[in-house]
């Protein structure tokens, strides 16, 4: 079964967002990566011109959990959705309706504005269609007849899609009752197998992902084979709403996104503290593992981006400027600058491996429709690292990077799985280089004893890669870490080193990142912990709560002592009741609340309330400092 895949035009640099957004899927579909075209009723004469009926009988026994089953179930669900909408709102024009991760959607053009009540009506009509047990029959029409039919039906969006397909593309339809969908398929043989489904929400979506085209209405839904699985998913969705990083980010005072800069996050004091803690952790770890850190310019000239290939293949996603009548671009990726740093001096084989890291700020022009909190932004920070090495060092360096990324993820209590992607059809470079690289990656993973999924033919065009998929606290997965071998940038930038034979050779480069986008990783952490950060990571680790104003002086002394020991502490010296202060601290998810009154002041103690354990009693100030410092150091 074909899968929808979208990648950046120039894959020589790590992708910021591995997930294909609904907008990207829509754009990909409209460009021919997948075909979904819907009509209404075909007259008998038109069908009879080239009648090839195929009910996808081989899918009769298909289960949801079978390979490809999830996508077939959900693609069939999108057709049932379109069928229901056409029954209830006959004047609606239909656009596209693919299966996506965790569900499906369909885009509609109608003067009617869909409401929550409409979703209930549509869902009820979908249930009727399922009960009608409509068989899904495939037939093929000649290109000109397909276009003629779609024009007769007034399906302008479908006509445009079909006209953009290659001349030799098969134009296949699926018929369910009196409803017709033009689609490559496959589908379930009957509507009756889709029994557990739910429509989720309505959103806007530009036709073909182009913000200059018409805004359509997109209805999202999900479906499963069994109701218990649907119920479990809905429960996870409700939990995800509670954990939404945009909601918690506002409540906890971490970040904001303002209309003056859509897609450009503002980190507030607490959010900046959180971000800096992550960066300190990253820097300390990389220093221990013999990385050096560099910083490359934010703006570089056109010649550089032509050399890297971005000017010709990625310019629509770049912000460009004129300086002294010359074209420049704000960097969308750090790698080209890293190549220039390497090239700044002559290197010998004795210098390898060279481990070079960069916390680099990058900017990419994202469509407004795909912006999403910290998860999808226009300005973000990448934790890049480039390792320059000899061919025989590949395996050991891959093992080192895998261990490094494992150390980072386990610190945050993330489970993860690993995928190894090998040579794609459009690869560049010699076959023997690919064979050597793929063997080294496989052997490295096998020697480490880690399980991995093999994705044959899914590597970048410049080399094979390893991707890390995190699983958060509620079972969602996020692709963050990556290890990519690159034969192409050393060629493009004419990098070299002097080998032990005295001749010049091309180094091999590993591109790697653990966080990927630090902003996005913070968004993931907010949702993973539901805002309850572990003490070492919390932007405020303790708050001091005087029972009344007359104990503020003692509270200030305690605060000073905690700060001397590197503890992030606040003092709530407002003239409020202690119960109110405690509730406020609980809402802010602060790990420790230190209540001080007359008894504590006289005995140089604090009464400790833990976010996790509640009231844990009084202890000497130095005892509490010892306890919390140990907890921070161990990153528990």
Report on the structure:
With 636 residues, the protein is an alpha+beta fold. The model is unreliable at 1-57 (pLDDT under 50). The protein has 20 helices and 29 strands. The strands form seven sheets. The chain has an eight-stranded mixed β-sheet with strand order 12-16-17-24-21-20-18-19, with helices on both faces. Strands 2, 3, 4, 8 and 9 form a five-stranded antiparallel β-sheet that branches. The chain has a five-stranded mixed β-sheet with strand order 26-25-27-28-29, with helices on both faces. The relative contact order is 0.09. It is globular and about 90 Å long.
Write out key terms for the chains shown.
globular, 24% strand, 636 residues, 20 helices, disordered N terminus, alpha+beta, 8-stranded mixed sheet, 5-stranded antiparallel sheet
Q: SS-based structural class?
A: alpha+beta
Q: Percentage of helical residues?
A: 25-40%
Radius of gyration: 29 Å
- Could you list the spans in which at least 5 consecutive residues all have pLDDT below 50? 1-57
Q: Report the β-strand fraction as a percent range.
A: 15-25%
Mean pLDDT: 87
State the end-to-end distance: 44 Å
Strand arrangement across the biggest beta sheet: 12-16-17-24-21-20-18-19
How many strands, what sense, and barrel or not for the largest sheet? 8 strands, mixed
What is the 3D shape?
Answer: globular
Number of strands: 29
**Count of DSSP H/I helices:** 20
């Amino acid at each position: 079964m074909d899968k929808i895949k979208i990648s950046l035009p120039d894959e020589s640099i790590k992708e910021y967002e591995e997930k294909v957004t609904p907008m990207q899927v829509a754009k990909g579909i409209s460009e021919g990566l997948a075909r979904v075209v819907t009509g209404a009723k075909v007259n008998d004469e038109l069908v009879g011109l080239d009648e090839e009926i195929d009910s996808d009988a081989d899918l009769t026994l298909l289960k949801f959990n079978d390979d490809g089953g999830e996508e077939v179930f959900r693609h069939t669900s999108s057709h049932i959705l379109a069928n229901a909408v056409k029954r209830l709102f006959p004047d609606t024009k239909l656009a596209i309706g693919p299966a996506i991760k965790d569900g499906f959607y369909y885009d509609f053009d109608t003067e009617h504005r869909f409401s929550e009540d409409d979703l209930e009506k549509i869902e009820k009509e979908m249930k009727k269609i399922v009960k009608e047990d409509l068989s899904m029959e495939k037939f093929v029409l000649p290109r000109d007849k397909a276009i003629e039919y779609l024009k007769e039906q007034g399906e302008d969006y479908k006509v445009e899609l079909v006209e953009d397909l290659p001349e030799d593309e098969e134009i296949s339809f699926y018929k369910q009752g009196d409803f017709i969908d033009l689609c490559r398929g496959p589908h379930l043989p009957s509507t009756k197998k889709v029994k557990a489904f739910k429509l989720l929400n309505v959103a806007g979506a530009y036709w073909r992902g182009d913000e200059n085209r018409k805004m359509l209405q997109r209805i999202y839904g999900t479906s499963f084979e069994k109701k218990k699985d649907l119920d479990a998913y809905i429960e996870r969705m409700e939990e995800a709403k509670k954990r939404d990083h945009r909601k918690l980010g506002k409540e906890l005072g971490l970040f904001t996104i303002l209309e003056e800069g859509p897609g450009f996050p503002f980190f507030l004091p607490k959010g900046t503290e959180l971000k800096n803690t992550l960066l300190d952790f990253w820097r300390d770890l990389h220093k221990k593992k013999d990385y050096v850190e560099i910083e490359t310019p934010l703006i570089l000239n056109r010649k550089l981006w032509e050399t890297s290939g971005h000017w010709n293949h990625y310019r629509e996603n770049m912000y460009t400027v004129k300086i002294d009548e010359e074209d420049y671009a704000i960097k969308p990726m750090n790698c080209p600058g890293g190549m220039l740093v390497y090239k700044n001096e002559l290197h010998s084989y004795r210098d390898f491996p060279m481990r070079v890291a960069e916390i680099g700020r990058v900017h990419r022009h994202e469509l407004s429709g795909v912006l999403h909190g910290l998860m999808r932004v226009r300005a973000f920070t990448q934790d890049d690292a480039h390792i320059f090495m000899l061919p025989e060092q590949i395996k050991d360096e891959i093992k080192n990077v895998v261990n490094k990324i494992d150390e980072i993820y386990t610190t945050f209590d993330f489970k993860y799985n690993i995928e190894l992607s090998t040579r794609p059809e459009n690869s560049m470079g010699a076959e023997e280089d690919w064979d050597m690289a793929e063997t080294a990656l496989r052997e490295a993973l096998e020697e480490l004893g880690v399980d991995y999924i093999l994705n044959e033919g899914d590597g970048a065009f410049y080399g094979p890669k390893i991707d890390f998929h995190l699983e958060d606290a509620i079972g969602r997965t996020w692709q963050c870490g990556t290890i990519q071998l690159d034969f192409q940038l050393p060629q493009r930038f004419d990098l070299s080193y002097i080998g032990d034979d005295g001749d010049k050779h091309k180094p091999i480069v590993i591109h790697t990142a653990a966080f990927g986008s630090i902003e996005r990783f913070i968004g993931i952490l907010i949702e993973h912990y539901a805002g309850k950060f572990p003490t070492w990571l919390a932007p405020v680790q303790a708050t001091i709560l005087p029972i009344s104003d007359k104990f503020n002086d003692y509270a200030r002394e305690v605060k000073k002592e905690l700060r001397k020991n590197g503890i992030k502490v606040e003092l709530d010296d407002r003239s409020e009741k202690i119960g109110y202060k405690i509730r406020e601290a609980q809402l802010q998810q602060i790990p420790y609340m230190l209540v001080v009154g007359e008894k504590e002041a006289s005995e140089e103690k604090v009464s400790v309330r833990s976010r996790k354990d509640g009231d844990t009693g009084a202890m000497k100030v130095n005892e509490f400092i010892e306890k919390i410092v140990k907890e921070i150091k161990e990153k528990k």
